[in-house]
Structures are given as C-alpha cells and as structure tokens.
Amino acid sequence: MSNVFEGYERQYCELSANLAKKCTPAGALNGEQKKQKVSEIKTGIDEAEALIRKMDLEARSLQPNIKGVLLAKLREYKSDLSNLKSELKKIVSGNLNPSARDELLESGMADAMTASADQRTRLMTSTERLNKTSDRVKESRRTMLETEELGVSILQDLHSQRQSLLHAHDTLHGVDDNIGKSKKILTNMSRRMNKNKWIIGGIVLVLVVAIGLILYFKLSK
C-alpha cells in the first residue's frame, strides 16, 4: 500500500466525519450563522474533492493489483462525498419552515446523527475490508517474490551442477584418452614380446641343430 495514499485517506476520513457533524445542525440555523456554516461546509467539501483527486492520481500510478484495491476504496469515498453534497444542497435550499427546523433540532437531530454515524461505520467497515484485501494482495506478492527467489536459487544450483557434470565429463574424456594410449603401448609391448619369443626360439633351434651336427661328426669318427 502507498504511504502517500494512506496519508490522503486519513485526512479525507477525518474531514468527512467533521463535515457530517456540521451538516446535521446547519439545517436548523438562520441568517449569518447559517451562511457561515454553509461556507465552512463548502470549503470542507472542496478540500475533500482535492483529496480524492490526489488519491485517484496516486492510485493510478501504482501497480495494477494494488491500483484495483485503491480505486475500489475511492468509489466508496466518492459516494460518501456525493452524499455530503446532497446534504449541503438541502441546507442551502432552505425549504424548511421554522417549526420544522425546531422539530429537526429538538427531535430529529439524534436520528440524523445516528444515520450519519451509521454511514461513517459502513464507510470504515468498507475501508477495513479493502485494507484486508490489500494485505492479502501484498502477502500474495510477497509469496510470489519468495517463489521467484527460490526459482532463481534452484536455477543457480542446476547451473552449478551442470558445470560440475561438464568438468567430470572432460575428466572422463581425458581418462579415456590415457586408457587408449596405455592400450596402444601394451599392444606394442605384446607384439615385441612375441617377436622376441620367435627370435629366441630360432636361436635355440639353431643351437640345437649345431650341437647335433657336432655330436654327429664326432661320433662318426
């Protein structure tokens, strides 16, 4: 919720309650007293309208989810202001005779003040309900941000694991190369050993044949 909007909102609620209290007895006044009271009410209504315009501008500058909640509040405040203007018109019209004004002042004032209090209560109830809705929106936004942060953390972990796997793959590839080289060396050594075996076998065979010939010639004599 915007702190600026909340400041305007508090000012409006205080001003609206004050205007409602002034409207109730104003209809029973006469002459200069009535003019002065009407002037005060008109000035207050102008201030209330200015506050509503400021709240409207502030609400429309915010994010869509918060803007919707605040504009719903504004509709309640505009309706309240419209009722205050209607009460002012009745006071200015001055269509009550003295006896009716006396009756209003003596017996009807309590009912009027009760109705005004009920109106204020409904307005405050609506404001409280909208505040709760705003709190739920903020909580949902906070949960969304936490989920986003968790997603980013998971992506970072996955990226780190991918880098580890790539490093392990490179290491295994190097091991495979070393194994291939070792295999070639062992194959060459095996061939050399077989070749040496044939050479040694040939030498042994030649020696056996030579010894046999020597013995043969000696025994022949």
Keywords:
0% strand, 94% helix, rod-shaped, mainly alpha, 221 residues
What does this structure look like?
- This protein has 221 residues and is an all-alpha fold.
- It is built from four helices and no strands.
- The longest helix is centred in the C-terminal third of the chain and has 123 residues, at 98-220.
- The chain is rod-shaped, with a radius of gyration of 50 Å.
- The relative contact order is 0.08.
Instruction: Please state the CA-atom Rg, rounded to the nearest Å.
Output: 50 Å
The 3D shape can be described as rod-shaped
Please describe the biggest sheet, giving its number of strands, its sense, and whether it closes into a barrel. Answer: none
List the helices and strands in order: HHHH
Uncertain residue segments:
103-112
Topology:
Layout: H1 3-26, H2 31-60, H3 64-93, H4 98-220
Helix pairs in contact: 1-2, 1-3, 1-4, 2-3, 3-4
Short description:
The chain has 221 residues and is mainly α. 94% of the residues lie in helices and 0% in strands.
